[in-house]
Write a structure and sequence with these properties.
two-stranded antiparallel ribbon, 48% helix, elongated, mainly alpha, 381 residues, 18 helices, single chain
């Protein structure tokens, strides 16, 4: 499945009451861990496994706080998982003091002014002080990158590169030095829109996603690592090489709005942690070791405390299985306690393997938890 909408997931995170117990970068409850601290920096199905593993503890908190246990539809679960996954993409807020040093070290002050200080060869950067997300600066760097590189070369100014959180640090300095108070925000990127842009902007003609696409540049599922800002920095750092290859192929450097940059980078980020395809054979081992058959049957073989997992309703996709497990966790815990069965903990790829086994038992083919990327025109999958 291509991930759901992180923005919708953030609304569900608040609307379903998750924020009562979990904080995001210090904002929210303290009963559970702060999910903004990259504690869920793992594949989507492993995030679902973490939710499953902690379901009994969360149920006890629900009871203590006397709040209803939230339930989800499969589409909602996709968006919630996408939001939780998206949280791992966010760097901590930039450091303005570090940004001030970078502004000088990277040579930005030679051409640009900020807070009345600096050069006058290029536009003033004070207007960027109103932007809260480094993606605004990232989009501007991309769109003006080639003219900037030409101007720097003509003036014998070394072209800077950016590592780690340096773009965020520069933006933090820009905000502090500009002195403005107005703030403009950008919504979380939509991976599905980013997938469409990857084809529309002709990125796919040079780059592949999971082996689908061009071979001029690297396969981005294996080379892009890290947070959104690290991906943005990689785009800037490799700009000259990309522009040269585009010129060879008569491809115009694509312009990107801030929203498009957000969507595109989110799409690329989501492919870092694609769940490996589950193995039905390993899934059968998980099914037996976790004693799922104590309550469930597979085509009549096993107990009938819960539904037959091969013929029951709404268990035909990974999302439906995950959603069913979450929605019925309290009932399952009660049944396990009655049967003296310990709550089964799923580690690593065990969730993917278990789901692959269940889907195979239902007659469906195991599917990975993310879609392959678009392909160049004229090539089949």
């Amino acid at each position: 499945m291509l991930p759901g909408d992180p923005l919708q997931g953030s609304r569900l995170f608040t609307g379903k009451g998750c924020l009562r117990c979990h904080a995001v970068h210090g904002v929210g409850g303290t009963a559970g861990p702060d999910l903004g601290r990259r504690v869920l920096n793992r594949p989507l199905l492993e995030i679902a496994g973490v939710m499953w593993n902690h379901a009994p503890a969360m149920e006890h908190v629900f009871q203590e706080k006397r709040v209803p246990r939230p339930t989800f539809e499969p589409g909602e679960m996709a968006s919630l998982l996408s939001f939780l996954y998206y949280l791992g993409s966010l760097d901590p807020p930039g450091d303005g003091a570090v940004g001030a040093r970078l502004f000088s070290q990277k040579g930005c002050e030679i051409c640009h002014s900020l807070g009345g200080k600096g050069g006058n060869l290029a536009p003033r950067l004070d207007t960027y002080g109103q932007y809260t997300s480094p993606l605004f600066l990232t989009a501007a760097l991309w769109n003006r990158g080639k003219p900037m590189a030409d101007a720097m070369r003509n003036r014998n100014i070394p072209r800077p590169t950016f590592q780690g959180t340096e773009i965020a640090d520069l933006l933090a300095y820009t905000r502090s030095a500009s002195g403005g108070t107005e703030r403009i925000y950008v919504e979380p990127g939509k991976p599905k829109n980013g997938e469409a842009l990857f084809g529309k902007k002709r990125c796919v003609e040079c780059h592949s996603i999971g082996g689908h696409g061009g071979a001029v540049g690297p396969d981005l599922t294996t080379t892009l690592k890290g947070s959104l800002m690290r991906i943005a920095g990689s785009m800037w750092n490799h700009g000259p090489k990309m522009w040269a290859k585009m010129a060879e192929r008569a491809i115009e450097v694509p312009a990107l709005t801030t929203e498009e940059m957000s969507d595109l980078i989110s799409y690329l980020y989501f492919f870092q942690f694609i769940d490996r395809p589950g193995d039905p054979r390993r899934g059968l081992v998980v099914y037996k070791e976790k004693r799922c058959g104590t309550c469930h049957a597979i085509r009549g073989v096993g107990e009938k405390v819960g539904p037959d997992l091969a013929t029951g309703e709404k268990l035909d996709t990974s999302l439906e299985v995950i959603t069913g497990m979450w929605n019925h966790a309290a009932t399952m815990e009660e049944a396990m306690l009655g049967s003296n069965v310990a709550w089964p903990v799923l580690k690593g790829g065990e969730m993917a393997d278990l789901i692959a086994y269940l889907l195979q038992a239902r007659g469906g083919a195991p599917r990975p938890a993310a879609a392959s990327g678009p392909q160049p025109k004229g090539k089949g999958r």
